[in-house]
Amino acid sequence: MSIKIDTRYSSHPEDFKSYATTEIRDKFLINEIFVPNQITGTYTMEDRLIVGGIHPVDQSLKLETIAQLKAENFLDRREIGIINVGASTTIDVDGEVVTLGHKEALYLGKGIKNVVFHPSTDGETLLYFNSAPAHTSYPTRKITQADAEIVTLGSLENSNHRTIYKLLVNSVVDTCQLQMGMTELKPGSVWNTMPAHTHDRRMEAYFYFDLREGNVVSHFMGQPDETRHIFLKNHQAIISPAWSIHSGAGTSNYTFIWGMAGENMDYGDMDSVKPSELR
Predict the structure, then answer these.
(1) Dist CA 64 CA 74 (whole Å)
(2) What does the record say about how the cofactor binds (predicted)?
(3) Which domains does the chain have, with CATH numbers?
């Protein structure tokens, strides 16, 4: 079987305060997203999001069901968002062939039966995905950067000049609860999502890439008055519970993909925290 999904359980914020570095990494870090000729992922009890990667090298990979779902097909009761962080590739979706370019996104709705990912002929196939429970079906939709809602924020003076590409959000495409996008930091900028915030109505996952070899990102999490940090490398991801801030600073600029699932799909629904209030 070419798909492997492990399970992570939820953590209480009071328990989190006592976690040592090893325990934080074991519970929230997704260490290896891309494994050759495998679909890998983590099923988190935080809004039951699945976070993972698809890396066909010399064979095609089918999106097969997993034990955690108790379903005949992976998407019987789920939706999935895929963002290509590698070379242009093709994906078969119930007989329709979709070509997905670098940093383009694909939304697949509830009820799709057969999804097959093919190796690229132009380089590495690296597809990052988030999947959330779905209550209705929406059409397959490819979203390019030209289709995205684009916002530029921050400044070089504050080391956070960045462009946000809202790819799979409700202002661009219909989804049940999944929201995904991509943020590119400009050269000379390293801070993301500052000022920090929480949103009790949904959790989030961060995936870091475009991080040059030898560099790292220090990701900050925890309640605003009780924060912790964890160091991530290129092609690693972090689970961020609804009670946790999610912010980071790297030793160089980088790109990250944010994905959300939960009760509220309003991108602006967040509880901001002033930098001076963080502890």
Answers:
(1) 6
(2) Binds 1 zinc ion per subunit.
(3) 3-277 (2.60.120.10)
The annotated binding site is made up of 197, 199, 204, 246
Contact 207, 132 (CB under 8 A): no
41 Cα distance to chain centroid: 11
- Residuewise pLDDT in 10s, the chain (279 residues): 799 999 999 999 999 999 999 999 999 999 999 999 999 999 999 999 999 999 999 999 999 999 999 999 999 999 999 999 999 999 999 999 999 999 999 999 999 999 999 999 999 999 999 999 999 999 999 999 999 999 999 999 999 999 999 999 999 999 999 999 999 999 999 999 888 888 888 899 999 999 999 999 999 999 999 999 999 999 999 999 999 999 999 999 999 999 999 987 777 777 888 888 889
In angstroms and rounded to an integer, the radius of gyration of the C-alpha atoms of the chain is 18
* pTM summary value: 0.96
